[in-house]
Write a structure and sequence with these properties.
8 helices
């Protein structure tokens, strides 16, 4: 019988360097002989990517915070069923850019819905699936958001169809609440959520992540 794989999630503000670090970790793990699946939220499936477009496109107006949260979970439920659980059953390491912690930070903290509805929906819709390890990339709010805005402007110029600017239009107070919610989560679940300082060079951040992953996977 194949041993169950490991589920590792990456969290942090937009522009904190998650996609860079996911790619670096995947390369390192593959070099150690592991089978790796890279995926993201919202998205990761055909249905999820369509939901992502609604959630992130800057032309989407008037979504209530509850609708936003419900759409995040609709994408996630499909993602778990279609991608995450099958990959784990095959013994693969799943690296996911965002998971339920993002909903707790952005909708729970940023949109002020609180943690309770997020935790309840996660139990009902996600079978309470928990990552084996969550890496929270922590950075200065203004640095992260400025970087995300620049990146999205560049994307928009090259690919007008790839508009994912809706959240970057929020104010600094919103992102401050998101960061505080993330840090509260890390304090609540220190065994699972590890805060990694993402203010240095990407190589330094990767070295810190590899240290955590080595311990978790016993490489």
């Amino acid at each position: 019988m194949t041993q169950r794989g490991k589920f590792i999630t990456f969290e942090g503000l937009d522009g904190s360097g998650k996609s860079t670090q996911v790619a670096k970790l995947a390369r390192s793990l593959r070099a150690h002989g592991f089978s790796v699946t890279i995926t993201r939220e919202p998205g990761g499936t055909a249905a999820g990517e369509r939901i992502r477009e609604v959630l992130l496109h800057s032309s989407t107006h008037g979504l209530s915070p509850l609708t936003e949260m419900a759409l995040m979970f609709a994408s996630r439920a499909q993602h778990i069923e279609e991608v995450i659980l099958p990959a784990l059953a095959e013994g693969r390491i799943v690296l996911c850019d965002r998971f339920t912690d993002s909903t707790e930070a952005y909708q729970g903290g940023g949109r002020k819905l609180g943690s309770k509805p997020v935790v309840q929906l996660h139990e009902v819709l996600c079978g309470n699936l928990q990552p084996d390890l969550t890496i929270l990339l922590d950075n200065d709010v203004s640095f992260s958001v400025g970087r995300a805005r620049r990146r999205n402007r560049k994307h928009k110029n090259h690919r007008p169809d790839k508009d994912e600017n809706r959240f970057e239009q929020e104010n600094r107070a919103f992102f401050g609440r998101v960061r505080n919610a993330y840090l509260a989560l890390a304090a609540r679940e220190p065994q699972r959520v590890h805060v990694v300082n993402a203010r240095g060079a990407p190589e330094e951040t990767h070295a810190a992540i590899m240290e955590l992953v080595r311990k978790k996977l016993k490489i």
